[in-house]
UniProtKB/TrEMBL annotation:
Molecular function GO terms recorded: methyltransferase activity
Endpoints of the signal sequence: none
Organism name: Zestomonas insulae
Xref: Pfam families: Radical_SAM
Similarity comment: Belongs to the radical SAM superfamily. RlmN family.
Keywords from the named record: 4Fe-4S, Cytoplasm, Disulfide bond, Iron, Iron-sulfur, Metal-binding, Methyltransferase, S-adenosyl-L-methionine, Transferase
Top-rank taxon: Bacteria
Protein name according to UniProt: RNA methyltransferase
Length: 338
């Protein structure tokens, strides 16, 4: 379901644009749909035909994203396994400091070699209403002031739905534009469309290596944009919006943690409006990839930082419960199938 399907349904029930706006605002803010105010109770402003349609609409919107299970982590985050109306499942993650990570696709076609979601391929797109429904669901637990599109899926491969959701979240959803973070491996369509939006989100770019040949191995189905080209595109967007680009670098021991790679980061990012996020890989048992040792990670951060690249270590939220992106859903599917 897309957001305009909800608008159309309300119009068919007799809602005027101001009624529709108010009802959709209530939904995205996690309130009941017929929520009025002390001075203007709902009964006084909604036509009867609309009021009669609300209980079924409310049930259908709740059905868009239902909580299947919650997995709290020690770091204050919590992974939510979210069931969609057709029985598919995605993950949302409640992040510390009122953040939420949402999924934009069921599965993903990019196939990053270190990612569990990539192993299933793309199963289906997540509709714009289903993306917003993940926020409405999370707001039943706690406030949400930041939404990052870093859950399952590549947002640039579901661009219309993601941009619609961003537009609603950045207007009626009360989320500051720089607190909406579009995360991508890099896709020219995203770089063309994001600057044209009235709500321009911040941008996170998955870089992972400074070498074009290694990037093609690690992200086999990502668009063939070289690291140099990606950083140039990112820098243009950062200057247009005034927000730094968050570069993502999943740290894999023996693969992209060498001195040569650190110098590659310096070559690419020194002087750029950028933050480098090093994300130590979250290994499962018998995994072919491992995270570098803690001492090595500290050395890397010091090296980059002292040479002018703002660098942070980010642990994948909730990693003590089920690991990185898509692992919770994979485990749930495993359980369902056994
Ligand atoms: Fe897709 Fe992101 Fe996983 Fe890569 S890391 S396969 S882009 S979900």
């Amino acid at each position: 379901m897309r957001i305009h399907d909800i608008q159309q349904r309300l119009a068919e029930a007799g809602a005027k644009p101001q009624h529709t706006g108010r009802i959709i605002r209530a939904w995205v803010q996690g309130r009941s749909l017929d929520h009025g105010t002390r001075h203007q109770p709902s009964e006084s402003f909604l036509p009867l035909s609309v009021r009669e349609a609300l209980p079924q609409l409310s049930a259908d919107l709740q059905n868009l994203a239902q909580l299947r299970s919650e997995h709290p982590g020690a770091d204050g985050s919590a992974r939510l396994l979210v069931g969609l109306a057709d029985g598919q499942m995605v993950e949302s993650v409640l992040l510390p400091r009122d953040g939420l990570c949402v999924s934009s696709q069921v599965g993903c076609a990019v196939g990053c070699v270190f990612c569990m979601t990539g192993k299933s391929g793309l199963l289906r797109q997540v509709g714009s209403a289903e993306i917003v429904a993940q926020v409405a669901l999370a707001r039943r637990f706690r406030p949400v002031k930041k939404v990052v599109f870093m859950g399952m899926g590549e947002p640039a491969h579901n661009l219309d739905n993601v941009l619609e959701a961003i537009d609603l979240l950045g207007t009626d959803g009360n989320i500051g534009h720089k607190n909406l973070v579009f995360s991508t491996v890099g896709d020219l369509r995203a770089f063309e469309r994001l600057p044209q939006q009235r709500v321009k989100p911040a941008l996170a770019l998955s870089l992972h290596t400074s070498r074009a040949d290694l990037r093609a191995e690690l992200l086999p189905k990502a668009p063939r944009i070289t690291p140099d080209e990606l950083v140039e595109l990112g820098e243009t967007y950062a200057r247009q919006t005034g927000y730094p680009i968050q570069y993502q670098w999943t740290l894999l021991a023996g693969i992209n943690d060498s001195q040569e790679e650190m110098d590659g980061i310096l070559r690419l990012l020194k002087g750029k409006y950028a933050v480098m996020n090093l994300i130590p890989y979250n290994s499962l048992e018998d995994d072919e990839y491992q995270r570098p040792a803690g001492e090595r990670i500290v050395q890397m951060v010091r090296y980059l930082h002292s040479r002018g690249v703002l660098t942070k270590v980010r642990n994948s939220a909730g990693q003590d419960v089920e690991g990185g992106c898509g692992q919770l859903r994979a485990r749930a599917v495993e359980l369902v199938n056994t």
